[in-house]
Specification:
Strand order of the largest sheet: 2-1-3-4-5-6
Shape: globular
Number of strands: 8
Largest sheet: 6 strands, antiparallel
Distance between the termini: 31 Å
Strand content: 25-35%
Structural class: alpha+beta
Length: 150
């Protein structure tokens, strides 16, 4: 999987829309001072891949903006298997929405989008979203890498 762009709207600390585009094939580095939103950006990528748009879990509700509590949205464009895809999730509990589009091809919505995304990325779903499997070994959240092994 190659991530090509990410767009966040009203996600945690961000008001309005923030985009990172033109992500290349090689190593890409996010650089910025503390509290600029680098970890929030990575959290949004994790959310759009592993969390269900209709989830009512407290950690998904925490994606809402800190102050105005607006509904967060995340769009991720990526390449996999020689095709370009875009996933767009609106994290709004039971009225949440997921749309997965194969550029120039099929469009999947809601549960079909969640299932097809899991199939594309090779992980299985659970109640709280996808089980990352091998992906989880590559994803260490800030502040958790030195935690208690138990």
């Amino acid at each position: 999987m190659k991530i090509r762009s990410i767009e966040l709207t009203n996600f945690r600390k961000f008001v309005g829309t923030v985009r990172v585009e033109s992500i290349g094939d090689n190593v890409n580095v996010l650089v910025g001072r503390n509290e600029l939103g680098k970890s929030t950006l990575l959290q949004a990528i994790n959310a759009v891949i592993f969390e269900r748009a209709r989830s009512n879990a407290s950690h998904v509700k925490a994606f809402r903006h800190f102050v105005n509590q607006t509904v967060p949205e995340v769009k991720l464009s990526f390449d996999i298997g020689g095709q370009s895809w875009a996933i767009h999730k609106r994290f709004a509990g039971q009225s949440g929405k997921a749309i997965l589009t194969c550029i120039g091809g099929a469009v999947y919505e809601d549960e079909a989008a969640e299932a097809e995304l899991q199939r594309l990325l090779g992980f299985t779903g659970g109640r709280g979203g996808g089980e990352p499997g091998i992906w989880g070994t590559l994803w260490v959240q800030q502040g958790q890498s030195l935690g208690d092994m138990a």
